[in-house]
Design goal:
GO terms for molecular function: signaling receptor binding. Residues 24-135, 145-215 form the Ig-like domain. This protein is of the alpha+beta class. It folds into two domains: 27-139, Immunoglobulin-like, CATH 2.60.40.10; 146-242, Immunoglobulins (Immunoglobulin-like, Sandwich). Helix content is 20%, strand content 36%. The chain binds 2-acetamido-2-deoxy-beta-D-glucopyranose.
C-alpha cells in the first residue's frame, strides 16, 4: 500500500517536471533575419519568444563573435554592463517592460558602419535555451563629389574629383565636353577614415585648353537606395569662367548678326531688278 502511494507520488513528480520543462520550452522568432539601416540612425533587432512567455527571469545575451563579450547581457533581472564590448557601451538596450511578453528585441542607437554583420541572440531560462541569428546591414549614403584643380611636380595640370564618407568603393566616370568617356586616363585612390568610411579621390591629367569635365560617382551594386553624385568643372586656361561665357555669347551674337546680314543682302540682291 505504502509502495503504491510512493509510486504514485513519483509518477506525479515526473509529470510535474515534464510539465515545467514543457511550459518553459520556447523558440526565438524574428520577423526578419536581415535588418537594413543607414549609418547614424537607430535600429531595433527584432526577436521574441514563441510562445510569448515572460522572459524577465531569463538570461538574454546579444553577442557577435564572442559569447563572453556581448553587445548586451541581461541576467538576474538586470542589464549587466561587465564584459560588454566597449564600442556598444551606452548604445544598446532591451525593452524591460516588453520582456514580460517575451519581446527580447535589441535596440541599438547611432549605428556605425562597424556595427554591420551577424548578431546572435541567446536566451536561457535555466531549463531550456535557444539561439537565433539576425544580420544587420548598414548602408551609407555618401557625400556629393567635388572637383578641384591642381598640378603635379612636373607642372602637369590635373583635376581631382573627391568624395567623403562612402560605404563601398564607387564607380567613377569622367567625361569631357563632347561626352567622351575619359575615365581610362584617370586613377583612383581610396582610404578609410576613423569611422571606417571611404574617402575616394580620382585624379585626371588635363590639357591646357578649354574643356568641360564631369565626374560621376555611383554605387557599384544597384540597390533600392541606389546612390550617385555628379559634379561638373569648366576648365578655361588663363581666363576666368565668366569671361569665357561672355566671349562665347559675344561670338554667338556676332555669328547670328553676320548670318542675318548675309541673308538680308541675299534677299535684297534677289529683289534688285536685272
Ligand atoms: C518589441 O518591442 C519593441 C519596442 O517597444 C517594439 O518596437 C516591437 O514591435 C516589439 N516586438 C514585438 C514582436 O512585439
Amino acid at each position: 500500500m505504502m509502495a503504491q502511494k510512493r509510486w504514485n507520488c513519483f509518477v506525479f513528480f515526473l509529470l510535474h517536471i515534464k510539465h515545467v520543462v514543457w511550459t518553459q520550452r520556447f523558440q526565438i522568432v524574428s520577423p526578419s533575419s536581415t535588418v537594413l539601416v543607414h549609418a547614424g540612425e537607430d535600429v531595433i533587432l527584432p526577436a521574441s519568444l514563441s510562445p510569448a512567455i515572460n522572459a524577465q527571469g531569463f538570461e538574454v545575451r546579444w553577442f557577435r563573435d564572442s559569447f563572453n563579450s556581448p553587445a548586451l547581457l541581461y541576467q538576474d533581472f538586470q542589464i549587466v554592463p561587465e564584459h560588454q564590448i566597449h564600442s556598444y557601451k551606452g548604445r544598446t538596450t532591451l525593452f524591460p517592460e516588453e520582456l514580460l511578453n517575451g519581446n527580447i528585441s535589441l535596440s541599438l542607437q547611432d549605428v556605425r558602419v562597424s556595427d554591420g554583420g551577424l548578431y546572435r541572440c541567446f536566451v536561457d531560462s535555466g531549463l531550456w535555451h535557444e539561439e537565433a541569428d539576425i544580420t544587420l546591414n548598414v548602408e551609407v549614403l555618401g557625400g556629393q563629389p567635388s572637383i578641384s584643380i591642381g598640378s603635379t611636380e612636373d607642372q602637369q595640370t590635373r583635376l581631382e574629383c573627391k568624395v567623403d564618407k562612402w560605404g563601398t568603393t564607387p564607380d567613377v566616370t569622367w567625361r569631357d565636353m563632347n561626352g567622351v568617356d575619359v575615365t581610362s586616363e584617370s586613377s583612383v585612390t581610396e582610404e578609410r577614415d576613423n569611422e571606417g568610411l571611404l574617402r575616394v579621390s580620382s585624379v585626371i591629367p588635363i590639357k591646357q585648353e578649354f574643356n568641360v569635365f564631369s565626374c560621376l560617382m555611383r554605387s557599384k551594386v544597384p540597390r533600392p537606395d541606389w546612390h550617385s553624385g555628379l559634379t561638373i568643372y569648366i576648365f578655361s586656361p588663363g581666363v576666368p569662367g565668366w569671361s569665357v561665357v561672355f566671349w562665347l555669347s559675344l561670338l554667338l551674337y556676332v555669328a547670328v548678326a553676320a548670318l542675318l546680314m548675309f541673308q538680308w543682302r541675299r534677299m535684297r540682291g534677289a529683289c534688285r531688278p536685272c
